[in-house]
């Protein structure tokens, strides 16, 4: 119990709770571990819980009727997810798959709903979180319709650099091992087109990609490329 308390104390949502709410929440939380590629939830599942990603990564994806795979995003540790499906009482629209060994804290839906109904600060935090994610999704739809593949790839690399990377000697190394096929799924493109864009980025000295290991060697130029077709500030996913 003490270990769970220490893990959760630094999460913003938990910090908005009073002591009795924290204790009630901690008593009901279940911590689960998943191995790489293990299915956590399948598409169209109805859920009655929210989930905090404690460590590891969750890949949200789906498979079309024709059998084609699409990846929505790689959800990083530190995020509270399943808020909208729980409150809207709608099934999940993606598969949730552990990407690497992943640990999550599962909060029963009834406990979560009771807290946000009784605690205005916690409710406002959740409202702001949902609004930020909604704005992020709207931007992604806009960029998918208006940006070139090169710019969209640059934006995706910046997202991955922010949430899934480490820095060494001014070079940003992505922690995820991603193939060009993975990027094709993320950007709804072909592997051949992704190959061409990575070749251009490599020749420009912006990115190096070897054996599924990606390093960003010029973050400034990558950022300029990502913003070259927009006049608004991108929203960071929260």
Q: Which architecture of the largest domain would the CATH scheme give at its second level?
A: Sandwich
Question: Could you report the average pLDDT, rounded to the nearest whole number?
Answer: 91
| Number of spatially distinct domains | 2
Shape: globular
- Range of strand content: 15-25%
- What is the CATH H-level superfamily of the largest domain? Jelly Rolls
Number of helices: 10
Unreliable sequence segments = none
Structure characterization notes:
This is CRP-like cAMP-binding protein. GO terms for molecular function: DNA binding; DNA-binding transcription factor activity. The protein is of the alpha+beta class. The protein folds into two domains: 143 residues, Sandwich (Jelly Rolls); 80 residues, Winged helix-like DNA-binding domain superfamily/Winged helix DNA-binding domain (Arc Repressor Mutant, subunit A), CATH 1.10.10. The protein has ten helices and twelve strands. The strands form three sheets. Strands 1-8-3-6 form a four-stranded antiparallel beta sheet. The chain has a four-stranded antiparallel beta sheet with strand order 2-7-4-5. A hairpin with a 5-residue loop joins strand 4 and strand 5. Helix 5 packs across helix 6 and helix 7 packs across helix 10. 25% of the residues are buried.
